[in-house]
Every structure is written in C-alpha cells, then in structure tokens.
UniProtKB/TrEMBL annotation:
Record's protein name: Crp/Fnr family transcriptional regulator
Superkingdom field: Bacteria
Organism whose genome encodes this protein: Candidatus Lambdaproteobacteria bacterium RIFOXYD2_FULL_50_16
SMART domains: cNMP (SM00100), HTH_CRP (SM00419)
Keywords assigned: DNA-binding, Transcription, Transcription regulation
C-alpha cells in the first residue's frame, strides 16, 4: 500500500464529510492563515484540533541533522491534531501551511465537551484513531519492503486520488509538490525520485505540465506500486 494514508479524503461510518464540516463550522473558530505559517511545534501543549477548509498543510519532523521527514500532506477536508489533544501529549511534530489556508480551530476543551454530550462524535474519533493506526502500519510496510519506484508510484496514485482532475492527457494532479518533498515523504533522496520520474516519463506513464504531474497510464503505475 506504500504511502497510502498520507494523503486522502476522510470518510467514516459515523460522520460523513458534510457532517464533519458542519461540526467544525458550528464549534470551531474560523481563521485565515498565510502561507508558511507554523501552526504548532514540538514541545508546545497540544490543546487544539484543526479542520482544513481550504489550502494545504504539511506535517513533518526534523532530525538532529536537520533532515525533514514528512508525515502527512493535508488538503481541504482533513482533520488533524486530535490524537495529540485527546492523549494529553505535547506536540511532537511541526505543522506548516504550504499555501494561504482557511482553518477551523477547535479547543481541546470544546472537543471533550462535545464528546461527552454526543456519542456519535466519540464514535467518529474512535474510527479516526483506528484508521490512522492501520495507515501507519501500511506506511511502515511500504517504506521497509517496497522499491523506490514503487513508493514514488504509490505517492502519485495517492495524490491523484485526492487532487486528480480530468485532463485530455489523463489525470492531472492539481497539487504542487517538489521531488525533495516526495523524497522526504517516502524516505529516499531527491535524486532517486527524479530518476523514477524520468523512467516513468520515458515509459509514457506520466508527463509534466506547468510543474504538475499528469498520469497517463494509471494501470501501469498501479502495477509498479505493487512491486
């Protein structure tokens, strides 16, 4: 499954996407945040939960050597910060906006109050934690056992599922991500990612238009992602 789970729509049996949006619209504070703003950093109290209404957010860690390890790439409709808030932990990761974003910010106190009063919200949060655990296990399996090309292919498929739009050449991934960011996400080097892109392009599987990737052969990428 590779890096699946880093990017994706959030769907649950207890809450559908519209209900999640309405929940945060009713109980959270709406704020506009400029590109490049750090939402939280390691060591700070995790006392807020976020719903991304518009824009992009990157969640990552930095190693002692200064290397960036991307944990999540989030787009509209994603919720984040609930695991840390509910567990009472301080933040261990860094969250930064990749573009100007609109975010609903809910305090931990409000979230816990709504959980106590509405079992449906508690069920939704439990589903989220279960899914995140499964996604983490799948991610670790992919990082440990899949080839570099397979990991790059899977990330492109994940981006396509989230940001893909119809294009005369195939599926345009309407999300700007650099080769360095891809490498930081799948634990490989920028050069390895660039080489994989070159191979995919030469094989006619992808193309690049205005710094964005077009998937021309989805089935072939899916086959590579399984290797």
């Amino acid at each position: 499954m590779g890096v699946s789970g880093l990017i994706g729509r959030e769907t649950y049996q207890s809450f559908n996407a519209i209900e999640v949006t309405h929940f945060f619209m009713e109980w959270a504070k709406l704020t506009t945040i400029p590109r490049g703003t750090v939402l939280f950093s390691p060591g700070e109290p995790a006392d807020q939960v976020y719903y991304l209404s518009h824009g992009e957010v990157k969640i990552y860690r930095s190693t002692n050597e200064g290397k960036e390890i991307i944990l999540e790439l989030l787009g509209p409709g994603n919720v984040f910060g609930d695991t840390e808030a509910l567990s009472g932990m301080d933040w261990k990761n860094i969250a930064v906006t990749k573009q100007d974003s609109i975010v609903h910010v809910m305090s931990k106190k409000v979230l816990l109050d709504r959980v106590a009063k509405d079992p449906k919200i508690a069920q939704w949060l439990l589903e989220r934690q279960s899914k995140k655990q499964m996604q983490t296990e799948n991610l670790m399996e992919g990082l440990l056992f899949k080839s570099a090309n397979a990991k790059v292919a899977q990330l492109l498929l994940d981006l396509s599922a989230k940001y893909g739009v119809a294009d005369p050449e195939g599926t345009l991934i309407d999300y700007l991500i650099t080769h360095q960011e891809i490498g930081n996400t799948i634990a490989t080097t920028r050069e390895t990612v660039s080489y994989a892109f070159m191979e995919f392009r030469q094989a006619g599987l992808i193309d690049t238009i205005k710094r964005r990737t077009v998937i021309k052969d989805l089935a072939a990428l899916e086959e590579i992602a399984r290797t």
